[in-house]
Amino acid sequence: xxxxxxxxxxxxxxxxxxxxxxxxxxxxxxxxxxxxxxxxxxxxxxxxxxxxxxxxxxxxxxxxxxxxxxxxxxxxxxxxxxxxxxxxxxxxxxxxxxxxxxxxxxxxxxxxxxxxxxxxxxxxxxxxxxxxxxxxxxxxxxxxxxxxxxxxxxxxxxxxxxxxxxxxxxxxxxxxxxxxxxxxxxxxxxxxxxxxxxxxxxxxxxxxxxxxxxxxxxxxxxxxxxxxxxxxxxxxxxxxxxxxxxxxxxxxxxxxxxxxxxxxxxxxxxxxxxxxxxxxxxxxxxxxxxxxxxxxxxxxxxxxxxxxxxxxxxxxxxxxxxxxxxxxxxxxxxxxxxxxxxxxxxxxxxxxxxxxxxxxxxxxxxxxxxxxxxxxxxxxxxxxxxxxxxxxxxxxxxxxxxxxxxxxxxxxxxxxxxxxxxxxxxxxxxxxxxxxxxx
Length: 439
Prior knowledge:
Elements: H1 2-17, E1 26-31, E2 45-52, E3 63-71, E4 76-82, E5 89-93, E6 99-109, E7 136-143, H2 158-170, E8 176-181, E9 188-195, E10 203-210, E11 218-224, E12 242-247, H3 258-267, H4 289-304, E13 310-320, H5 322-333, E14 339-343, H6 375-379, E15 385-392, H7 400-409, E16 415-420, E17 435-438
Parallel strand pairs: 11-12, 11-13, 13-14, 14-15, 15-16
Antiparallel strand pairs: 1-2, 2-5, 3-4, 3-6, 6-7, 8-9, 9-10, 10-12, 16-17
């Protein structure tokens, strides 16, 4: 034991001695205006970029900042700035129409243009996003954002289509199979739940109920997931006072092993496309992969209403990215929903290229069937309070213009959105930062 402890101490000291001097650097950006989403068309926009916890070597002339400006006007410009002192660097631009403008910037070696990297992820970054080790800025500003409208009109038979889907669902009785699960948390009872559903697969998920909950004592929350196929664990939002049904997007048994998950993921893709991306499947709304997903979201609420612990009043949904899209579908489709809390919602303004807007490099190629799943059109039908808990002004996956168009379609008085400067899809700068709340 003594030898092991000594080895650990030696390793820790060696790690500290070799720490990258840039590991603690925070890249902080803001617009000079305190309201980054309140610009008028043609008004000058100035971004100020600065570094916190930076070593002196960042300012000795060995590094520069390479930047790119893109916007909903279709224009792209690039440039470089010398990093000479600790004063904020400035990038000025403008936009002549309703929409957003974006600036991304990276610290590189002046000698050869190679990125300056941390050895660890930036605070608040997630490994999958791929930018957690760069000294990277992703900033945005909005111009006349209240005027941003959907790029296309909604389908004329939108309501008729969803009435048919609800009829399909109603034809299948709400039958549930429940198996106890153990996550080592004595404060809750956990169940693996399977619920019969219309469409290709049942609902599968994990239900978390506070231990010894009395009948009619809990609000019900349906938790929906982001893009991908991955093992389900403990519901992330489980807490006292609420019963949480965390459903995976695909109807996959949480008790399956990793091999079964991998086999399932392989089975739902086409030779060329990962799930939901096939243009052929998306030609018609019934053929979209999202059809079964939406049916399972609606059926999840049918199930939680049957639980004796539900208080009969509070019915909520929350999730991010693809889960944000599902949350907004629920806001428009589920009767009696009392709150929806999407984060960085996907599927907003599915044919943004038709309006000439900046588009995510990670987006579905438009096909007519996707219009029925555009979160903008579901937002228009929301009857509950919709709290967009996070929207990143630097998010190039779920881009701000689509989220703004969705927000503009929500009923006034029943909505809130929090815009976070410098936030990407999987990264939120450490506080304090530039945030703007709109209602």
